[in-house]
């Protein structure tokens, strides 16, 4: 008989949210991960998850942050980049405990949509870790600030979060730490929403369409 991986405790999905819902009526979870390296589709592991929530273009006070024990050494180049050492995470909980706490944070905040900067990297890291732990998850819609920037400023092709935050005049927090980058992304996201509304884009459907247009053109 075919064995199907068990489903992790559900995170709030958005399948029933009308596409014409104004984004001021949505709550977004803006998240980021730090990892042991950049091959998250293969052997690299998550070492930190950070998140903050946004509603009505305001960054809310309640945040989420946890180190993750990757059960392996953290390379010196990653320690130099993030400040996270093997000792930092050796007493941290394993991934499966952290992701359950993270999903609970999302659920308690009634955060309908996820947001990341270069979100495909972080989503891949999460999906690989979940699969490694022999679970599966139905993920909600996840928006990428890079797609919004690509729509507003098509000539921009960089990935650097700090550069974009500076260019759009939003706050910059401690870099290459999951919560710091999540906060920076959240403030950038709020600024991008103001720019999008100036162009008449103000609904969930608009945000999804912008994401799809950007992906079709890359």
Automatic annotation (TrEMBL):
One of its GO terms (cellular component) is cytosol. It comes from Halalkalibacter akibai (strain ATCC 43226 / DSM 21942 / CIP 109018 / JCM 9157 / 1139). Residues 27-198 form the Exonuclease domain. Keywords: Exonuclease, Hydrolase, Nuclease. GO terms for biological process: DNA replication proofreading. GO terms for molecular function: 3'-5' exonuclease activity; DNA binding; DNA-directed DNA polymerase activity. PANTHER family: DNA POLYMERASE III SUBUNIT EPSILON. This is Exonuclease domain-containing protein.
């Amino acid at each position: 008989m075919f064995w199907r991986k068990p489903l992790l405790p559900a995170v709030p999905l958005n399948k029933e949210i009308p596409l014409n819902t104004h984004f001021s009526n949505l709550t977004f979870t803006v998240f980021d991960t730090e990892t042991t390296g950049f091959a998250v589709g293969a052997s690299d592991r998550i070492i930190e998850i950070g998140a903050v929530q946004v509603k009505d273009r305001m960054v809310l006070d309640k945040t989420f942050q946890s180190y993750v024990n990757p059960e392996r050494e953290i390379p010196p180049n990653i320690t130099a980049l993030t400040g996270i050492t093997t000792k930092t995470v050796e007493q941290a909980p394993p991934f499966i405990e952290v992701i359950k706490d993270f999903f609970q944070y999302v659920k308690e905040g009634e955060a309908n949509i996820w947001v990341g900067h270069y979100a495909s990297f972080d989503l891949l890291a999460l999906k690989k870790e979940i699969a490694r732990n022999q679970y599966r998850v139905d993920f909600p819609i996840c928006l990428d600030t890079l797609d919004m920037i690509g729509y507003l400023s098509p000539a921009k092709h960089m990935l650097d979060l700090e550069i974009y935050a500076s260019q759009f005049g939003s706050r910059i927090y401690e870099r290459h730490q999951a919560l710091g980058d999540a906060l920076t992304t959240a403030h950038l996201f709020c600024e991008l929403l103001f720019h999008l509304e100036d162009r008449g884009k103000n609904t969930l459907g608009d945000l999804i369409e912008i994401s799809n247009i950007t992906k079709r053109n890359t």
